[in-house]
Amino acid sequence: SDQVIIGRSVYQIKLLESMTVLLNNHPQDVTQEEFEKDLHLLPEWRQEKALRFRFLLDRVLCTKAYLLLKQGLSSTFGITGNPEFLYIGHEKPVLKDNKKHFSISHSGDYIVLGFSEHDCGIDIEKIKPRDYKKISERMNFKSNSLKEFYLNWTEYEAKYKLGLKSQSAYSFEIPDYMITAVDGYKDEKYEVYYNI
User: Distance of CA 123 to CAs 36, 78, 110, 132, 181, Å?
Assistant: First the structure.
């Protein structure tokens, strides 16, 4: 199998030559008790941020995203400890004391996190029926099918998160989801390994 399980329900995918993607599935299944256990693993400032959300799922997403980031920094770059951020541009988080880059997105059953040596953006969307023709027209997408719409939409969102002109992009599907990762590095090569 090309998938690497690096924790409970966490999958690591080598997506790009210099970008690793982590998927955490089913955050909506986390109980209040599990959330409280995870919450204590966070630094105080992140606990406060998570607790500002009204609904449990939003609190879980905030908590799991940080833990996934922490796990990914350790497994991908050997960086340990609690990561701290600065916010730039469109409130994009960047690591405060490091030159490593990351991007995060969540939709439905998954949290997805991309890591790179270069600035990057990532988006995941659950593929569901919608009036894609109307939205495509408004967004100037050339979408002749629902799949093409989600391909265009995730690329648009990932490029927005990148905040600059992407040099390379790669989209792929897992059952019922589309994921697109973009990178600012012009010589990026793409490889996808997954089996979810």
Answer: 27, 25, 11, 18, 7
Amino acid type, 59 = R
Instruction: Look up residue 82 and give its amino acid.
Output: N
Helical axes 146-162 vs 132-139, angle rounded to 10°: 40
For residues 104 and 86, give the distance between their C-alpha atoms in angstroms, rounded to a whole number: 15
How many helices and strands (H and E) does the chain possess?
5, 10
pLDDT 10s digits, 57-74: 889 888 888 888 888 788
Residue bearing tokens 């023709």: 133
Taking the complete model, does pTM exceed 0.70, yes or no?
yes
Identify the CA nearest to 123 among candidates 10, 3, 23, 11.
Answer: 23
Q: Are 71 and 84 in contact (CB under 8 A)?
A: no
Q: What is the dihedral of CA 46, 102, 93, 34, to 10 degrees?
A: -20
